[in-house]
Write a structure and sequence with these properties.
The protein is 58% helix and 15% strand. It has 175 residues and is of the alpha+beta class.
Length: 175
């Protein structure tokens, strides 16, 4: 049994994290083995996601008054939370990918900035391309009009060259 002092320490540490987290995902881990939870913890840790199993009552107390207070309603049954203080996408990506591999786990809800997310919104967030891919696409979009303009300008001398080549071929045939 946890003492009141230990409970207050847990709540205080979680209040700080819950107030500063950028995003979070709640999962129902009913029916999975401890070894599977350990694999999930390790995967989360390597991706800079904090993964915790907290007593529901303690989690609700820690959420009270924070921007993520809307998550309190989802702390029922066997619930774990994966969250990040730095990244918006990492918790969704890590937990969603793990849920796809392990059908026993279910995503209950998510949290982003100040909004509680549904499963479909967590899925959409998880499937977003990485920052680097998005930047590359943006640069490609910026570069496309310039490339097209260069091709148009290069087309004029190219057409002139085709015309001169055709004239030369006609003169050679007439000789």
């Amino acid at each position: 049994m946890i003492t009141k002092e230990k409970k207050s320490q847990i709540i205080n540490s979680q209040v700080n994290d819950f107030s500063n987290m950028k995003s979070a995902v709640l999962i129902d881990f009913t029916g999975i083995k401890v070894s599977e939870v350990d694999v999930l913890r390790k995967t989360a840790r390597t991706n800079h996601v904090k993964f915790k199993v907290i007593k529901n009552t303690l989690a609700k107390k820690a959420l009270k008054g924070s921007k993520a207070e809307g998550l309190s309603a989802y702390f029922e049954g066997s619930t774990a939370i994966g969250y990040s203080l730095d990244s918006i996408i990492d918790p969704a990506r890590v937990l969603y990918n793990y849920v796809r591999e392990n059908q026993k786990i279910k995503i209950k809800a998510g949290f982003l900035e100040d909004k509680v997310l549904s499963f479909n919104e967590v899925k959409a967030l998880a499937e977003l391309p990485s920052r680097e891919v998005l930047l590359a696409r943006l640069l490609g979009t910026f570069n496309a009009p310039i490339s097209n303009f260069v091709n148009v300008l290069a087309g004029i001398p190219r057409k002139l060259l085709y015309a001169l080549t055709a004239v030369q071929d006609m003169k050679e045939k007439n000789k």
